[in-house]
Specification:
92 residues, single chain, 3 helices, Helix Hairpins
Length: 92
């Protein structure tokens, strides 16, 4: 690993965890349901990026597969929550 990556990857991981903490505050405090859905979507995205950074740090491909799974669940969950907020039901 190059010297730049040896300090940049832990810094990126720290920044992603900090972003997740900020979005957790928005998730708990959000005045509307749309704010909470957006905060949850942002947490999914930050979690997926953290898994990718961990995969680069440890050099293990299992982290990349977990990030792909998180991305898939994020898409399905966000779509279901948006449909619920618009129509009041998920399954028609």
């Amino acid at each position: 690993m190059s010297p730049v990556l040896s300090w940049a990857l832990p810094l990126a991981l720290f920044m992603l965890v900090l972003a997740m903490a900020c979005t957790l505050a928005r998730l708990l405090k959000g005045p509307t349901a749309q704010d909470r859905v957006l905060a949850l979507d942002c947490m999914y995205l930050n979690g997926m990026l953290a898994m990718l950074v961990l995969g680069l740090i440890y050099g293990n491909s299992h982290y990349f597969e977990a990030a792909l799974l998180i991305a898939f669940l994020c898409f399905v969950g966000t779509t279901a929550m948006a449909k619920f907020l618009l129509r009041g039901e998920v399954i028609e």
